[in-house]
Design a protein that fits this description.
Length: 101
């Protein structure tokens, strides 16, 4: 996947360290299977079901500045899921948290 994305001119990093934040404080690290152009997280799986993995990619998007995630499953039945969590929603959540303190 990385080779093909790179051939198209995209910057593609494997196992890239992404800092995870909660209310502006770093709480951990996440290592993306692929990070494309610093804008899209790609998770690669070979599983029968994607239920938990779908939840985790949304959590990664919520905890980072990245807004788009792709989940590619190469299990029994190939699946592609696109998840989006806009940064504007993150800013609203942060403002609400700050106001309640």
């Amino acid at each position: 996947m990385k080779i093909e994305l790179t051939k198209t001119g995209m910057l593609c990093e494997q196992q890239n360290n992404i800092k995870v934040y909660y209310e502006s404080e770093q709480v951990g690290d996440y290592y993306a299977d692929l990070l494309v152009n610093g804008l899209v997280i790609i998770e690669l799986k070979a599983a029968e079901a994607l239920r938990r993995t779908r939840d985790s990619i949304i959590n990664y998007l919520k905890a980072t500045d990245i807004e788009v995630g792709l989940l590619l499953n190469f299990g029994k039945k190939a699946e592609i899921k696109r998840k989006i969590f806009l940064n504007e929603h993150k800013k609203i959540k942060q403002r609400k948290s700050a106001q309640s303190e």
